[in-house]
Amino acid sequence: MSDIIHLLPDYLANQIAAGEVVQRPASVVKELLENAIDAHATSVQLIVKEAGKQLIQVVDNGIGMSETDARMCFERHATSKISSTEDLFRIRTMGFRGEAMASIGAVAQVELKTKPQAAETGTKLLVEGSAVVIQEPVATPAGTSIAVKNLFYNVPARRNFLKTNAVEMRHILDEFQRVALAYPDVAFALYHNDAEIFNLPATKLSQRIVGMFGNNYKEQMAYCEEDTSFLQVRGYIGKPEFARKTRGEQFFFVNNRFIKSGYLNHAVMTAFEGLLPKESHPFYVLFIDIEPEKIDINVHPTKTEIKFEDEKTVYAIVHAAVKKSLGLHNIAPSLDFDGDVNFAPLQPIRIQNTVSEFENEGQNQRESSFSGFTAPASPKRMSSKGWEQLYEPLKQQPASEERITSASTMNFLDDAFAPASPASGSSSKALQIHQKYLLVQVKSGVMVVDQQAAQERILYEKYMASLQHRKTGASQALLFPQTIDLSPADATLLKELYAEFQDMGFQFEDFGGNTIILNGIPADVHAANEKELLEELIEQYKNNSATLKLDKRENLARAMAKRLASKLQTRMSDLEMNSLVDKLFACEVPNYSPSGQKTLVMMELNQLHALFQKG
To answer: What is the model's pLDDT at position 3?
Structure first.
């Protein structure tokens, strides 16, 4: 039998390794920025074109490389960071595996220019598909410049899997922000398609946060610090009143390395318990300094997951540090944190249960008392005529009364602020319960409609129709146009979605930098807190992008519907309730909200009889 096992050629081995290390343009950005930090740079520039698909260039003023080092850095497992097994457990640098440059060189065209601080001339290398095409001396400033062009040019299948420029650019911004936050003493700049996105001078952490996320963060930050013999915690947390509906700006750094940890996030969230609105998330940028021997960072190629030697102690110290900061800044009741005091967090007063509590906490009671309460089997479309036949009016309506049907042209959001119909002797098809549910009599029994979920379904289909047909939505001009400062990431996203926002009825103009002037909002939106509306809409859009694979029109329609529906839990008149039910029945999928939540449940008359043991 002939031998069948052979050694893979270097170029193929590098392409295989690149599959883990280089997943998208943001992966290249992360590796190059970390290399610049390890080179002791004090100034770093990131230049990107076409969201990194055409060009990713990082220019730093670090220590540079010799001619031999420049050639060696593209070899697999070539590194200056470690040389023994013991070094693997004393890592303070960002990189250490020696895989990044070899992987990048295998799937892109790379131009490297580098010069040590004391050298007279530098070195230029051109690498394509792991092969060095050119190596020659060059006149270049001290430091290193690496330009990665045409990423995945030789792996077209990988290139085809890249997302839109807007999505890929958001991933690049995430990586840039993480490194820039970890090293506020280093100046960073970011340019995309020749437009300046960030220009961050070297400063302290608080000013770096403000420079990165906007001036409105000045008033919401509280300093957090805790020193122990085991580890040190420092950074900033956000005050509870500034919490957002999406996770947004939440950062953990261990020895200046960004990590993702649901375990430590839970420590922070429990410290905020009783202080946050439901389903809200606080801002935090927390740094944990710990001896490298007590952690293992060699867990995942992206190095964003680490293992702690004693994770329970880490959890307890992080929780105590956040709790202490909340107390010191009079955000939570002041306590003696030096003493051994056990206490329970304050709980907010609850007037009414939320929909999720109705579904979860009352599950046992509903199963015992409403065993026959079932939802429609499938979200099939029901015609307006079919829904009309479902109703059995309590009594005959006067002929003179104009009944609102699913074909009515009355706008739902206008109805929400309209007075009830003054017609005497009219009967309502619905009864509102706790300003959350509508109880509706139907021929076969009763139906309960989730008010918020129904509104979300109606609004979603309305906005999807506008976006799909590219009809510019009706807009109401603001009496006083509002100037809104956005974070660079949000400003970039808003510009990418300009046409879609205009189709929904928003009117705004670029004021330069990351500032816009909002001149108008959709005509069917209640005019109040326009800035909050826009910011929450962007937050919801980003949250959808992180968890769902949606095109930008559907994503925006969902975000707008969810945001507006959450603000419409009010007492409704008979006219408003009837209009809501009719409009829900006219939807293509009336049974479920866009997120999959049931909008209605049915209970047959015989099931009602069974509850009272009637034959």
So the answer is: 77
- Beta strands 187-192 and 43-49, pairing class: parallel
b/e map 49-67, b = 16+ CB within 10 Å: bebbbebbbbbbbbbbbeb
Q: Give the up-direction half-sphere exposure of residue 319: CA atoms within 13 A in the CB hemisphere.
A: 15
Structure tokens that stand for 505 in this block: 């009825």
pLDDT in tens, 325-365: 998 876 654 444 444 444 444 444 343 443 344 344 444 44
**CATH number, domain containing residue 163:** 3.30.565.10
Is 470 contained in some domain?
no
Residues 503 and 578 in one domain: no
| Chosen domain end from 313, 328, 343 | 328
* Local structure of 503: helix, strand or coil: helix
| Backbone phi, psi, residue 61, to 5° | -110, 35
Q: Write the pLDDT tens digit of every residue in 135-157.
A: 999 999 999 999 999 999 888 88
Question: What domain count does the chain have?
Answer: 4
Report pTM: 0.67
Beta bridge partners of 295: 308
Question: Looking at residue 592, which CATH number applies to its domain?
Answer: 3.30.1540.20
- Whether the Cβ atoms of residue 521 and residue 505 lie closer than 8 Å to each other: yes
**223 has which bridge partners?**
236
Give the residues across from 225 on adjacent strands.
Answer: 234
* Band of residue 417 on the pLDDT scale cut at 50, 70, 90: very low
Residue 451's nearest CA partner among 573, 359, 565 is 565
Task: Establish how many alpha carbons lie within 13 A of residue 458's alpha carbon, considering only the half-sphere containing its beta carbon.
Answer: 27
1 occurs within a structural domain: no
Write out the residue range of the structural domain in which residue 197 sits: 10-203
Helix segments in 335-450, DSSP class H: 355-360, 363-369, 384-390, 412-415
Are 220 and 365 contained in the same domain? no
Q: Assess whether 587 and 448 both reside in one domain.
A: yes
* Tokens of residue 61, six digits: 């003023």
Alpha-carbon distance of 129 to 266, in angstroms, equals 44
